[in-house]
Design a protein that fits this description.
By secondary structure, the protein is mainly β. The protein contains six helices and 46 strands. The radius of gyration is 49 Å and the shape is elongated.
Length: 658
């Protein structure tokens, strides 16, 4: 036995190393033989099976008898060398491989897509596993897929019905036998040679389409908005594959159209409008189409067999108590005219609430406030859009409502359970680049208003401002509203708080005067340096040197080129005066045509035409002081300098200490 096994192994090794390529062999299991009556006879060995012979038993197993006559248990599944590779003794040659192609045809024009086929095969009556399975044919290219199987295989090819409504496929063969079977499948084979092709031809069914309309009703008055509906349909013509979801816009057009396969039965479901919980459930009714109310927010529609059916979806916004939130803008002691914009986003019970209109605008100087109406309990984020120019981030405070500062320029407001107000306070900075950097207040509006009495010619008293320990101001035309818009008008002594003249430039003491802490009345040299910086450091730039601005005590200074000089960069377009008050406000100085009060007569003059700002520098004679002049005549861009009588009433701008 050992010798036979050794010889067999040697021959196998030799065949692997030197012999020709042979088909791979599969081993068949073998067991001890049943009684001899189930075997072929004709030998002299035990159980009538000849020695060194192979026989199949009643269950098709191959056995080899290697034992001497009369020896029990001499059965093995290994073949002796003399008959190795035969169709017995537990070894059978593997069959040859083959293949066939599946080609998809969708008519004269390929319909792009992936078409899926399940393939099941048998070989000699035994199942054969196709890999991969299922197989996919992609159109328009390559349009074919190859299936590798053993030669002689019989296969069932079954197409998975494509999405939509399709005719049953027709299978035909080229180089291979094909027999149509159950719908969508065919029997292919036996596959005896490579290259057979199975053609699978079908097309989508031609399906008529019909339409129905979805109409939204929100009560007697349309509530503007976009109302969203999901539509799912089934039917003989296949599912609905059109746009989904669909939207109805109120107040116009108030309806949307859905095109579906004829005979479709559809489920129409409204997406709850915002905010959640603030609307009643919709009621669905049909005109020329059957509508059956389903669960909340949905209804069954159809079958839809003709054009023109209308599904009306009616519900109302629940009555929710509303509260008022006022947003009030504060720009310091003096309102800086302009439109200030705020975005307001709110939630109610965790759901978004749409504020209308949004953004909202606060106009200064009047009315200075805007109102937002929101449902009771709303939580809102109020965010100011940074105004043109350079501004400090705002501070938000609340009255009648909780306010928590958030990111820069925004605050959380609420819950808003009663009417309340939000005050948004910040100041404008005026900053130029390069070596110059200055920040100013708006026109001052501090102190107690006193009337300006007309006199002079008749000898009546002019009611001058005096050094009496109280800051006093004139309001143009004796109107407090003008002080709110343009600031107060002050004599030089009142503005300086009766301190002596000062003309320091970059260093030295400053005069605070009536300015707030941290600010001072700018000297003539400081004003001149600021004007120089505006022309030379803020585009478009000009060539006027610093010395010209500082040494020229009267008259117009700066470039005459359009948009270049300091004057046009300091003024902001305002009002409807003639000639107009124009400017670029390139640095946010926002000069307004505030006018003045004339000493000799006590009358007011030049509102809408001129702005004058005191400097801290006394002129010559000592009854006059240097002032900055801007007016409509300098619309070419220049700024002026004047030696103005100290008792004239002019505007005051304060420069931040540096």
């Amino acid at each position: 036995m050992k010798k036979l096994l050794t010889l067999a192994l040697d021959l196998v090794v030799l065949a692997v190393l030197t012999g020709p390529a042979v088909a791979q062999q599969q081993k068949v299991s073998c067991a001890n033989p049943p009684p001899a009556t189930t075997y072929n006879t004709g030998g002299t060995s035990a159980n009538n099976v000849p020695l060194n012979q192979c026989y199949k038993n009643s269950v098709g197993e191959c056995l080899y008898n290697f034992a001497a006559p009369g020896t029990a248990g001499g059965w093995n599944t290994s073949c002796p060398p003399a008959i190795a590779g035969s169709n017995c003794c537990g070894w059978t040659p593997s069959p040859a491989t083959s293949h066939f192609d599946i080609r998809k045809v969708t008519g004269n024009t390929p319909i792009p897509g992936s078409y899926v086929f399940n393939v099941t095969c048998t070989v000699n009556g035994a199942p054969y596993t196709v890999t991969p399975n299922p197989v996919t044919v992609v159109l328009p290219s390559p349009g074919v897929a190859t299936v590798n199987v053993p030669a002689g295989a019989l296969c069932i090819v079954k197409e998975v019905a494509p999405t939509g409504s399709w005719n049953d496929p027709v299978y035909t063969g080229s180089g291979v036998a094909v027999v149509m079977g159950a719908p969508w499948e065919a029997k292919v084979g036996p596959i005896t040679a490579n290259g057979g092709v199975v053609n699978v031809a079908n097309q989508p069914k031609k399906v008529d389409t019909v339409r129905f309309d979805i109409r939204k009703v929100t009560g007697n008055t349309p509530i503007p908005g976009s109302y969203v509906f999901n539509v799912t349909c089934t039917g003989p013509g296949g599912p609905y594959t059109g746009p989904n979801p669909v939207t109805v816009v109120l107040p116009s057009p108030g309806v949307t159209t859905v095109n579906v396969p004829a005979g479709a039965i559809c489920i129409v479901t409204e997406t709850p409008p915002a905010p959640a919980g603030s609307w009643s459930d919709p009621v669905y009714t049909g005109s020329s189409v059957t509508v059956t109310q389903g669960g909340p927010l949905e209804a069954k529609v159809g079958p839809i067999t003709a054009n023109g059916g209308v599904v009306t979806v009616a519900n109302r916004r629940k009555e929710v108590p509303m509260n008022r939130l006022d947003i009030r803008k504060i720009t310091g002691d003096t309102p800086i005219p302009g439109s200030y914009v705020f975005n307001v986003t709110c939630t109610v019970n965790g759901a978004p609430y749409t504020v209308t209109p949004n953004p909202v605008t606060v106009v200064l100087p009047s009315p200075g406030v805007t109102t937002v109406n929101v449902p009771a309990g709303a939580l809102c984020i109020v965010t100011e859009t940074q105004p043109t120019g350079s501004w400090d981030p705002p501070t938000y405070t609340g009255s009648g409502v909780a306010v928590i500062m958030g990111a820069p320029w925004e605050a959380k407001v609420g819950p808003i359970t009663t009417n309340g107000s939000v005050m948004v306070t910040n100041r404008q900075k005026v900053v130029t680049g390069g070596v110059c950097s200055y920040q100013f207040t708006a026109n001052l509006n501090v102190g107690t208003q006193i009337p300006s009495t007309v006199g002079g010619i008749a000898g009546a008293p002019l009611n001058p401002q005096t050094n009496n320990g109280t800051v006093e101001k004139y309001c143009y035309g004796n109107s407090a509203a003008n002080c709110a818009t343009y600031g107060g008008l002050y004599g030089w002594g009142e503005a300086m708080a009766y301190a002596p003249s000062n003309n320091n430039d970059l260093t030295g003491a400053r005069v605070q005067g009536i300015c707030p802490a941290g600010f001072h009345i700018p000297s003539h040299l400081e004003w001149a340096r600021y004007e120089y910086c505006l022309e030379s450091g803020v585009a478009p730039t000009g060539p006027t040197p610093l010395a010209t601005f500082q040494n020229q005590l009267t008259g117009w200074r700066g470039s005459t080129a359009a948009g270049v000089g300091p004057g046009v960069k300091m003024k902001i377009p305002f009002g409807s005066f003639s000639p107009p008050w124009t400017g670029t406000n390139a640095t946010g100085f926002a000069a307004l045509p505030s006018g003045s009060r004339i000493l000799t007569t006590g009358v007011f003059d030049s509102l809408g035409y001129r702005a004058n700002y005191w400097s801290a520098t006394q002129g010559s004679p000592a009854t006059r002081a240097s002032s900055v002049v801007l007016d409509t005549a300098s619309s070419s861009g220049r700024s002026g300098r004047d030696l103005t009588p100290k008792d004239y009433g002019l505007s005051v701008r304060c420069m931040q200490n540096y």
